[in-house]
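Re: that backbone. Tokens:
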């Protein structure tokens, strides 16, 4: 088990979310999903674990399940800009550029992070290249 120094209480969803993120960093996506599922089991409304679960599923190219996790996080916390952004990344990976732009726009409206602006700009360029 990877130790997350931020929260060492194995009875907290934050602990298991941290474990899952550590597993994602080493591309151990199945272990990450198990950790995120444990966090969600402890607190089904823990949006961060739902979002991170989507990231792990996306890493495994399990796109439909990833989208469901992002949607769950957004439904519980509509102002969760990171989940909107990750949803956009997923749609871009799938080639669903219109949906990706909508997700990026929502993330940018909530938090105009330069990474979000850059991703939207890159998507516009990709869309122009593929439609040319």
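Recovered sequence:
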């Amino acid at each position: 088990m990877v130790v997350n120094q931020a929260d060492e209480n194995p009875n907290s969803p934050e602990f298991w979310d941290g474990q899952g993120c550590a597993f994602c960093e080493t591309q151990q996506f199945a272990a990450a999903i198990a950790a995120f599922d444990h966090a969600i089991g402890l607190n089904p409304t823990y949006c961060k674990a739902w979002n991170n679960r989507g990231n792990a599923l996306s890493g495994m190219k399990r796109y439909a399940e990833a989208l469901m996790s992002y949607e769950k996080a957004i439904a519980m916390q509509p102002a969760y800009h990171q989940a909107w952004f990750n949803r956009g990344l997923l749609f871009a990976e799938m080639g669903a550029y219109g949906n990706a732009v909508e997700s990026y726009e929502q993330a940018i409206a909530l938090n105009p992070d330069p990474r979000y602006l850059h991703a939207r700009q890159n998507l516009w360029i990709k869309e122009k290249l593929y439609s040319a």
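The chain has seven helices and no strands. The chain has a mean pLDDT of 92.
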